[in-house]
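Why should sequence recovery work at all? Because a backbone constrains its sequence more than one might expect. Tight turns favour small or flexible residues, buried strands favour hydrophobic ones, and helices have their own preferences. The token representation captures these environments compactly. In the example below, the structure is given first.
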């Protein structure tokens, strides 16, 4: 097969991962509304339920399931799952060709689209496995001295704290654990917590963009600006924010940003993204070394020799799906659902919202408690209604974490609200 024919076949088989023409053809007509007068392009608005029902139709959730646990794991929509499976079939049809370089251009195209997701150069993006790996990359690489300090607030995910405990604490590095307010009235309250924790021995601030406990958004740009004044590095756990919020990493100003792509980006499971500012890349060392380890580019951090490339190409399809909906529209829809949920909860006298509600402090994750019931009791009662969510009973929280996404309809939220009243 000639190179040109092979490339054409590859693009067709993967649903257009190199440029997404076939991905657009498969769902673009539905999402643009060409086949439904009720969902015209102009009607692609946060509150148009007919359009979002079309989007929801691209997901294959179990019949009857109301899925409010996207903050744990998001589903892959039909075109992403199909593209990943097509890549898997191609790999199995000619394993050595595609594992050892046959998909080099396609992988680089995924890197380019990932860079656009964060408004940065693709040369600052490594394609890794998940947020945990990214946080380990940073914690294992930095050459800190005994007595140096790393600030890690109390709401950090274990994957954001354990790497520092494992790689740095035994060396005598001190982990400083300030307490974040549960219901701040402004981002400035959060910035003040970090400002007060900084000393002349602080070398790193490791923080979430959005905490997994109650969905509070932390002010990365403001903390990064503060850190630069003290020559402090900032490493961000972006597991909950990537592809939910529109993100410009240059504007956020952090040095490192790690994320899993299996939540609001809906990629195949086991693939993630890692960003490092050009000026900070020299500080990083790969966790795994193989032939090519001396590469000066950020690719040295993802050189696993053999890896699951169909998942990487599936990530490309997920990025295409994200762009097909539109990043700004996607965030606006999730905020619309948040407001709809909060309005409905206002009628429930026993419901207690445990998340700050301002748009600059939260988005698609809301933690809700019910007077007289514990978090697990609420979760189990909702499970009887085929509702999946996550109990949260730590750091002063005692409720269920509800996470909405673009496959969530207002009818789903209504069903949840009624179930909470019954609970």
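From this structural description, the recovered sequence reads:
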């Amino acid at each position: 097969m000639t190179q040109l024919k092979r490339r054409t076949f590859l693009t067709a088989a993967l649903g257009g991962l190199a440029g997404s023409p076939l991905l657009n053809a498969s769902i673009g007509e539905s999402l643009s509304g060409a086949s439904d007068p009720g969902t015209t392009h102009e009607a692609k608005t946060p509150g148009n339920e007919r359009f979002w029902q079309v989007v929801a139709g691209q997901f294959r959730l179990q019949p009857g399931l109301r899925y409010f646990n996207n903050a744990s794991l998001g589903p892959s929509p039909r075109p992403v799952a199909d593209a990943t499976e097509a890549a898997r079939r191609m790999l199995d049809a000619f394993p050595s060709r595609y594992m050892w370089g046959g998909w080099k251009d396609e992988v680089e195209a995924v890197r380019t689209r990932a860079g656009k997701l964060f408004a940065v150069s693709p040369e600052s993006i490594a394609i890794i496995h998940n947020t945990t790996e990214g946080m380990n990359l940073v914690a294992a690489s930095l050459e800190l001295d005994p007595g140096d300090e790393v600030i890690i607030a109390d709401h950090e995910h274990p994957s954001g704290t354990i790497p520092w405990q494992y790689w740095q604490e035994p060396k005598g590095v001190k982990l400083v654990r300030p307490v974040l307010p549960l219901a701040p009235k402004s981002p400035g309250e959060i910035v003040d917590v970090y400002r007060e924790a900084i000393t002349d021995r602080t070398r790193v601030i490791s923080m979430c963009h959005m905490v997994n406990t109650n969905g509070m958004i932390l002010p990365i740009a403001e903390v990064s600006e503060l850190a630069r004044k003290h020559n402090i590095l900032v490493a961000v756990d972006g597991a909950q924010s990537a592809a939910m919020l529109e993100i410009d990493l240059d504007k956020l100003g952090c040095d490192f940003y790690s994320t899993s792509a299996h939540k609001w980006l809906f990629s195949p499971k086991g693939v993630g993204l890692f960003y490092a500012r050009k000026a900070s890349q020299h500080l990083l060392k790969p966790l795994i070394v193989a032939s090519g380890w001396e590469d000066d580019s950020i690719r040295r951090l993802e050189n696993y020799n053999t890896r699951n490339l169909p998942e990487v190409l599936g990530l490309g399809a997920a990025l295409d799906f994200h762009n097909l909906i539109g990043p700004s529209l996607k965030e606006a829809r999730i905020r619309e659902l948040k407001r709809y949920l909060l309005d409905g909860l206002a009628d429930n006298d026993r419901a207690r919202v445990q998340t700050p509600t301002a748009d600059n402090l939260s988005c698609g994750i809301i933690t809700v408690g019910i007077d007289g019931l514990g978090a697990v009791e609420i979760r189990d009662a909702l499970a009887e209604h085929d509702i999946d969510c996550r109990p949260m009973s730590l750091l002063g929280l005692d409720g269920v974490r509800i996470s909405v996404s673009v496959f969530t309809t207002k009818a789903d939220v209504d069903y949840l609200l009624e179930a909470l009243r019954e609970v």
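A few observations help interpret the result. DSSP finds 15 helices and 13 strands in the chain.
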